[in-house]
Amino acid sequence: MYDQIDDIRMPSQDYTSTSSQGSHVKEKSRFNLLYKNLEKIEEIFFDEDLVTLEKDILMQLGKIGALQLFHVCLSRTLQTSITTNYSTQLTNNPREAEIDNQVGDVIVRSTKKEERKSRRERSLEKPGKTSAVMPSSKTISNYPRRATGSTVGNLSKSRIRRHNVARNEAEMSIRVKDVAELEKIRTKLEAESGQVASFRRWAEAAGIAEKVLQQRLHYGWFCRDRLLRSTHSLIVYLARNYRGLGISLEDLYQAGKVGVLQGAERFDHMRGYKFSTYVQYWIRKSMSSLVENHSRVIQIPVTLSRRINKIKKARRTLYNVHGRNSHLTLRSKLQKNLS
C-alpha cells in the first residue's frame, strides 16, 4: 500500500520540477528577447526625443524670425543628399545582396537613416505651412553669392562712411578757418577806427561782395556748430580727468569747446590724421590752462605749474614704490622719464 502511494507521489514531484524549469526557461527567453530588442527600444526613445527637440528648435527659430533662412539651408542640404543617394543607387546593383557565410542570413541595409529624414521632413512641413512659402530655386542658388556680396558691401560701406566723415571734418575745419580769418579782419578794423565796423566796410576790407560775405559767414557758423556738436562726447570724456580740482563741469565743457575751435583753425587735413585725434591735444590744453588759472588763489605761469605738477607726480610715484622719500637723483630721473 505504501509502495503504491510512493509510486503515485513521484510523478507529482517530476511534474512540479518540469513546470518550474519551464517557467524559468520562459523568463530566460523573455529576458533574452528584451536584451535583443534593447537597442531598438533605445533608438525609438532617441528618435522621439529628437523629434521633440527639432520641434522646439523650429519654434524658437520662428520666434526669432530666422525660420525661412533655416528652410532654405535645409532644402539645399536635402537636394544634395538626394542626388548622392541616386548616384549610389545607380552604381550599386540593388538586386545583389551580401550573404554572411558564417550565419547564412542575408544582410539588408538599414533604413533608419531614411526614416529619420522622412520624420524630419514631416516635422518641417507642419510649421512650413503656417510660416512662409519656400523661396524658388533661383533664390536658393543665389543665396551664398548674396551673403558674400553683403559682407563685402558692409566693408565697403564702412570704408565709405569713414572717408565721408574725414572729408566732412576737413571741409568744416576749412570753413571754420575762413570765418576766423574774416573775424580777424573785423577786429582789426574796429581796433584801427575805434568804432563798430559796418557790414559794408567789412566786405570792402575782405575784398568780397556783401552777399558773398554773408553766405560765407552763415556757412562757417553752421560748420562751427556742427563741429561742436560732433565733438561734445569727446569733450565730456576728457573733462572727467579734471573733476574735483575746483572747476565746475560746465566751465570745463566751455573750455573744451574753445579748444575744439582752436584745433579746427590749425587743423591740416593734408597730413592724413583724423580731426578727433588732432583736436584732443587742444581740448586738454584749454582745460588744463583753465584749471591752472582758477584753481589757485595766487596765479602761477602755466609752464611753471606744469613743472610743479610733474614733480608732485614723481614724488607720489616714488613714495608708492619705495614707501619713503627717495634721493633727489632718483626723483630727477623719474621726472625725466615722465616728461
From TrEMBL:
Polar residues compositional bias, start-end: 133-152
Residues spanning the signal sequence: none
Region of interest (Disordered), ranges: 111-152
Gene Ontology molecular function terms on file: DNA-binding transcription factor activity
SUPFAM superfamilies named among the record's database cross-references: Sigma2 domain of RNA polymerase sigma factors
Bias kind Basic and acidic residues: ranges: 111-128
Span of domain RNA polymerase sigma-70 region: 228-296
One GO term of the biological process aspect: DNA-templated transcription initiation
Family from the record: Belongs to the sigma-70 factor family.
Name under which the protein is recorded: RNA polymerase sigma-70 region 2 domain-containing protein
Annotated source species: Aquilegia coerulea (Rocky mountain columbine)
